[in-house]
Design a protein that fits this description.
mainly beta; elongated; 4-stranded antiparallel beta sheet; single chain
């Protein structure tokens, strides 16, 4: 995936962005980036029996293998990052907890959509005092 991005920011903010990009371009160091409209946070309910946690969220939008950050907002289940183990339908899926327990309550899930990217080059223009435009291209990379 390749994203052509434009940042319209203050000149001070552009210096921060440019410093970040410059520090990574020399050795092609990747960075984590979430493309626009690719991540989401949704809320619903959960029920845990042994290590299986069943989560119910209307139109959850997750798939088997997705990695979710889960915040159990009530009950005593342990928050963390979990892999979707199964999808029953558009409203129900399961993850596997590290410890066996019986819990239930409210839950918030976040699918970041983040990946590893590099920025090979960028341009910076200053159209008027204290404003800057940075145009750059982020290219997704796959690292072991």
């Amino acid at each position: 995936k390749v994203y052509d991005l434009t940042f319209n920011v203050s000149e001070t903010e552009s210096d921060v962005i440019e410093g970040f990009l410059r520090s990574r371009v020399a050795d092609q160091a990747s960075f984590t980036f979430t493309p626009p409209a690719e991540g989401f946070t949704k809320t619903g309910t959960y029920s845990q029996s042994t290590t299986t946690v069943t989560i119910t969220i209307t139109q959850h939008g997750v798939a088997i293998g997705d990695v979710l950050t889960i915040d159990y907002t009530s009950g005593s289940a342990t928050d963390g990052d979990f892999v979707v183990a199964s999808v029953t339908n558009d409203n129900v899926f399961t993850v596997t907890a590290a410890d066996s327990a019986t819990n239930s309550g409210n839950v918030s899930i976040t699918l970041s959509g983040a990946g590893k990217y590099v920025c090979d080059s960028w341009t910076k223009t200053i159209p008027y005092n204290n404003r800057a435009i940075i145009n750059c291209t982020f290219r997704e990379v796959f690292e072991p």
